Amino acid sequence: MDPADPQNLHDTADKPVLERIDIATEGNDCDECVRALREPLMKIEGVKEVVADPESENVWVTFDARRTHAPAIHDVILKSGYKAAPIAD
């Protein structure tokens, strides 16, 4: 089997395409806030990891881009009562 062959897709078709996004979350500044935000994010299909830092009010979400996308993650953050905005590099 030649890995360079474009017809050889069956080996990677089911593997996740992981992406990680950083999101600034206004109001996510205590441990209870972290729990309130982390739990609904982990329920999104394809989300693999959620790391929230109440000190910096940032959330890092690792997800499978084949199962969900950033707008869905932002929607859950908004529904949790927090404002979400991408972090400018």
Structure description:
The chain is of the alpha+beta class. It has a domain at 30-86: Alpha-Beta Plaits. The chain has two helices and four strands. Strands 2-3-1-4 form a four-stranded antiparallel beta sheet, with helices on one face. Strand 2 (47-53) and strand 3 (58-64) form a beta hairpin.
Feature tags:
89 residues, alpha+beta, Alpha-Beta Plaits, 4-stranded antiparallel beta sheet, elongated
Radius of gyration: 16 Å
Using the alpha-carbon principal axes, give the shape: elongated
CATH architecture assignment name of the domain at 30-86 = 2-Layer Sandwich
C-alpha termini separation:
41 Å
Average pLDDT metric: 83
Provide the succession of SSEs.
EHEEHE
How much helicity do the residues have? 10-25%
SS content category:
alpha+beta
Please, what is the oligomeric state? single chain
Predict the CATH topology of the domain at 30-86: Alpha-Beta Plaits
CATH class of the domain at 30-86: Alpha Beta
Residue stretches low in confidence (pLDDT < 50, at least 5 long) are none
Q: Would you count the extended β strands for me?
A: 4
Described by strand count, sense and barrel closure, the largest sheet is:
4 strands, antiparallel
How many helices does DSSP assign? 2
Short description:
With 89 residues, the protein is of the alpha+beta class. The protein has two helices and four strands, in the order E-H-E-E-H-E.
